[in-house]
Amino acid sequence: MGVVIAFGALKGGVGKSTLAVNVSCAIAVAGQRVELIDADEQATVLAWSEQDAGLAGLPVPVQALPATDQTDVRRWLDTVLAHADLVDVLVLDLPPQVGQVMRAALAAADLLVLPVTASGVDLRRQVEHEHVHQLVREAREVRGGGLPRCLLVPSRVDRRTASGREVEAVLHDFGEPVGPAIGQRSAHVDAFGLHQWIGQFAPRSVAHVEIAALAAVIRRNVQRGKAQSAQG
């Protein structure tokens, strides 16, 4: 079965779908077979993947499998796993909430990527990691081998603000690895408007370099997790 990477969030507007799309594409152009599943009812990923005439489109196939807490999550997870059997990497863009869908995803995911915005006083409230950590710990206890791993990603960071300069330090307090920060950049909005990932829209830009760095960390994180799981 291919590697399963889930992008989750505790609320909308933190850049979850932006990271899911761009990291998927970065991994795909590096030579991996990647599929991206849009499990969010808002269908941002699906809208992003719509191909306009004359444009190349995203370098990854996108499948819509929307899920809510009213979904038969067992059947949904079986479908997800069937897709994972066909690729090297399966990326899930989960609904922006902590519930049964995230719990089901953690039963299969090798890595949960959790974007967090540097919103000052709201930072700790936004993360609410006692709840998320509990779900992750429960999944690790059931599965063994330290899976799923969890990576916190500072997202939409503005270094001109105090919270933007301190976000990594705050996130390290939660005891999970912290990935490279992704800045608040209009290039991502413009790329979405053209149904392109940032590597197509603005290659070698700061926005592209940030995504490439995050994709590299995610690949290494997953490889490390697989190795530890095999040893355990």
> What name does the CATH topology carry?
Rossmann fold
Proportion of beta-strand residues? 15-25%
**How large is the radius of gyration?**
17 Å
Beta strand count: 7
Seen as an oligomer or otherwise, the chain set is single chain
CATH C-level label: Alpha Beta
- Individual helix count: 10
Q: How many domains make up the coordinates?
A: 1
Helix content: 40-55%
The main sheet comes to: 7 strands, parallel
How far is the first residue's CA from the last residue's CA?
19 Å
Give the uncertain stretches in residue-range form: none
Mean pLDDT: 89
Going by CATH, the architecture would be: 3-Layer(aba) Sandwich
Q: Can you list the strand order of the major beta sheet?
A: 3-2-4-1-5-6-7
What is the name of the CATH superfamily?
A: P-loop containing nucleotide triphosphate hydrolases
- The ordered string of helix (H) and strand (E) elements is EHEHEHEHEHHEHEHHH
Shape: globular
Structural class call reads alpha/beta
Provide an overview of this structure.
This protein has 232 residues and is an alpha/beta fold. It has a single domain, classed as P-loop containing nucleotide triphosphate hydrolases (Rossmann fold, 3-Layer(aba) Sandwich). Helices cover 47% and strands 16% of the residues. The protein has 10 helices and 7 strands. The protein has helices spanning 16-29, 44-49, 73-84, 100-106, 122-127, 129-143, 162-172, 186-193, 198-201, 206-231, and strands at residues 3-7, 34-38, 62-64, 89-93, 111-117, 149-157, 182-183. It has a 7-stranded parallel beta sheet, with helices on both faces. Strand 2 (34-38), helix 2 and strand 3 (62-64) form a beta-alpha-beta unit. Helix 1 (16-29) crosses helix 10 (206-231). The mean pLDDT is 89.
